[in-house]
Specification:
Number of strands: 10
Number of helices: 9
Shape: elongated
Order of helices and strands: EEHHEHEHEEEEHHHHEEH
Helix content: 25-40%
Number of domains: 2
Radius of gyration: 23 Å
Structural class: alpha+beta
Distance between the termini: 30 Å
Strand order of the largest sheet: 3-4-8-7-6-5
Largest sheet: 6 strands, mixed
Length: about 280
Amino acid sequence: MLAYFDETSEAAAGMLRAGNAGANTAADQIAVAEAALEQIPAERAGGIEVLLRVDSAGAVHELLEWAREGNIGFSVGFDLTEQVREAIARIPDERWVGAQDSDGSVRHNGEVAEATELIDLSGWPQASRLIVRRERPHPGAQLSFTDAGGHRFQAILTDQCGDEIAAIECRHRARARAEDQIADDKDTGLAKLPFRAFAMNAVWLELVLLAHDLLAWTKALLLEGELARSRPKRLRHRLLHVAARLAFSGRRARLRLQASWPWARELAAAFVKLRDLPAPAS
């Protein structure tokens, strides 16, 4: 189970669990969320707004009550149960509005509507809202029994307020960036756990998350342009695997890069930025 800070792409926390562990085990979810929050510096923790975004496994009463008690907003996927499908069927056509892309433009394929008043949410935290998105499946996609009228539906449960439901739904959809972070971690060692012992694999997970953060900080602080947006595989090819030689002279060590390497200048510039970074406060 993994948690990431979306704004910085950092790996906030992770927990290795047994293969038969439930996806919506509230105790584990809360433990990972608390571990992630502990990474926020104490001097900044009081001045930021935190939004917890989880897929449908996060639609757990204990987790959302924990978030409410901690003054943390939530936005989680919601299963298309029979009650939810019946509520969707009662949404008037005029209530559907165009979905939104991350740049604020209207999404070419997709509409959103609110179904809060059409379903009983009394068991969930007060002021919870149910927002639904519908879209036409891409050509060749198979429709399922939960699809109706040629549309595919997704629902979210959130406590985010405001009339701009398209922006709220778009904000939740950005949670998919976590899948990119997971893919990066699989590319840096998480694809296979190398040990037989559970405890050793748990340590391996921590090492993978450390590598994730090193790459995130490298891209944020030292790189520019395309390299600052590159995935681990590309960074390995362009920067981390470059041939170099340590030369010692006058009690000084110099790193000599392969001059013909296409990204040697970018790597050299990164080392200069690293040298000029201010020392940590503690």
